[in-house]
Write a structure and sequence with these properties.
Blueprint (H helix, E strand, L loop, with lengths): L1 H32 L7 H19 L2 H25 L4 H24 L13 E3 L9 H5 L1 E3 H19 L1 H11 L1 H6 L4 H27 L11 H11 L4 H24 L5 H19 L17
Antiparallel strand pairs: 1-2
Amino acid sequence: MEILTSIASFIAADFRTATPLILAGMGLVFSSRAGIVNIGVEGMMLVGALAGVAGSWWFGSAWYGALFAMAMASIISLIFAYLSVTVKADQIVIGAAINILGLGLTTTFARTLFGLNTAPPAIDSFSIIAIPVLSQIPFIGQAFFRQNALVYLAIILVPIASFIMFKTDIGLKVRAVGEHPKACDTVGINVYLVRYITILVSGLFSGLAGAYVSLGLLSFFTENMVAGRGFMALAAVVFGKYSPKGILLAGLVFGAAEAIQFRLQAAGTAIPFQFLLMLPYALTIFALAGFVGKSRAPAANAQPYEKD
C-alpha cells in the first residue's frame, strides 16, 4: 500500500509540474502552426506570473489574478506580433528581446510593488479541489482527482484545442497559413490577421501558465521564477509534434523529471543539488536530440510574409 500511495503521489505531482508546460505549449501550438516561432514565451510567462500575484493581491481572487495575468501577457504578445508580423523583424531576435524585457519589467515592478526583504503579503491562490466521489477512489483518486482548478482546466483544454486545430475551419486556416501563406492569401485568407490572432492566443495561454506558477505551484512571485519553463514548453511543442495531445504527453514527461528532482532533494540524497536542478533541462535536451528529426515543423516556420 505504501508503494501504491507513493506512486499515486508522484503521478499527482507530475500533473502539477506539467501544467505550466501544457498550458504554454497549447498556445505555442497555435502560433507555431501559423508559422510563428514565439521564443518570447518565457518573458510572457514571467509577466503573467507577476501580474497574477498583483491581480490576486489587488482584487482578492486568484481567478481575477489569472485573468489579469492573461491580459498583461497578451499586451506583450501583441508587441511581439507587431514586430514580427507587421515590421517583419527576425522572430528569434524579437523573442529573445521579449524575454529580456519580461525579466527586467517583472524584477522592477515586483520590487516597486512588494519591496525587498519583506514578508510577502497574503494573497489568494489556487487550492486543491477534491472532486466528490472520484477523489475517494483508491489510488486513482489521489493520483488524478485532488488537484487545483488550473490543472483540471489544462487537461480539459487539450481535447478542445485538438478539436479546434484538426476538426474545424479555423484550425485548417491556421495550419494552411503555416504551410503556404501565399496560397492562403490568393484564396482570401488574411495571413496577417491569422498570425496576429495565434500570437495573441499564445500570449493568453502563456499568461495563464505564468499565473499557475505563481498562484498554483507557489503563492507569491520571486524574480525569474519561471526558470526556463517557457523554453521547455517550446521543446514540448517539437517533442509533441505540434499537436495538443503531443503537448500533454511531452509536458508529463518533462514534468516527471521536475517531480523527481523535487523528491530527490526532499529525500536528502548524496547527489549534489546542482545536478538535480539540471535534470529537467537535461531530459529536454535528450528528448529533442532524439525526436527533433522526427518532428516536422510547418514549411513557413519563422518566415515573415510579404504581399507582392
